[in-house]
Amino acid sequence: MDIPAVAPRCEDAPHFSLLFESGETMREQSRTGACLSRLVLSILFVAAMLGHIYIGTIGMEGAFEAMGEGTVDVNWAKEHHRLWLEDEMGRSSTKGARAQPAE
């Protein structure tokens, strides 16, 4: 089932008619152009998805282990997510200060 806003039917794209020979009817031209553009976009989307999976697993050292364990090395966090690390380090130092009784 196609969702018109995301994946229009091939015959609903008349603006692709300029790409093909004038011997074809407007409906044939638009159907061919829309299907061709859909094919190209689908291939690009799958390639981007596979690239994202690769980088998130074996393409970046330590990423796969971090997903399994739920933790990352401090040096890795400094390099990739400095603001998050600073926020987390601030929370842990604040928690430690509250946990100690006042003397």
First-to-last CA distance: 69 Å
Whole-number mean pLDDT:
75
Give the topology string: H per helix, E per strand: HHHH
Number of helices: 4
Q: Strand portion, in percent? A: under 5%
* Beta-strand segment tally: 0
Global structural class: mainly alpha
Please give the oligomerization state of what you see: single chain
Report the principal-axis shape.
elongated
Largest sheet: none
Low-pLDDT stretches: 1-6
Integer count of domains: 2
Radius of gyration: 26 Å
What share of the residues lie within helices?
A: 55-70%
Provide a compact summary of the structure:
The protein is 64% helix and 0% strand. The chain is mostly helical and 103 residues long.
